[in-house]
Amino acid sequence: MDTENTSENTTPENVENTDASTNETEQAPELSVEDKLKEEVQHLNDKYLRLYAEFDNYKRRTQKERVELLQTAGKDVIVSLLTVLDDFDRALKAMETATDIAPVKEGILLVSTKLKNTLAQKGLKDVESISKEFNTDFHEAITNIPAPTEDLKGKVIDEVEKGYTLNDNVIRFAKVVVGA
User: Fold this and answer.
1) Which residues pair with 143 in a beta bridge?
2) Is the full-model pTM beyond 0.70?
C-alpha cells in the first residue's frame, strides 16, 4: 500500500504540475498575441516609412524632371532657328560687299519668309487685326480715334504691334488703334 500511497501522492502532484503548465501555456498565447501585435505594428510602421520614402523620392524625381524640361523646352525651337540665323549671317556679309540693293532685299525677304515658316511649323500664328472687330481676347487697345467711316466704328483701324498665338493660346496681344 505504501506503493499505492506513493503513486497516489505522485499523481496529485503531477496533476498540479500539469495545471501549472496549462496556466503557463495559457499565458504564453496571450504574450504571443501581444508579440504578434507588436510585430504587426512594427511591420506596418516599416511599410509606412518605406512608402513615405518612396513617395518623397518620387516627388524629388518629378521636380528634377520638371526643371530639366523647363531648361530644355526651347531647345527644339532654337535648333530649328539656327539655319535662319546662319542665313542672316550670310545676308549681313553679302550687304557689306553689295553694290546693288535688289539682291540684298530679295535675300532678306527670303530669310524673313524662312523664319516665319519655321515659327509657323512650331505653332506660331499672327493675330489678324486690321478692319476686324475689336476683341479683348486678342487685342490691346492703345488709343481710340474718330473712325474715318461709319462702318469702322468699334473696329481696328491700325496695328502698332502684331499679336501672336502659339497653339491657339495668345502669347502676345496685338496693340491696336480702335475707331470710335
Assistant:
1) 177
2) no
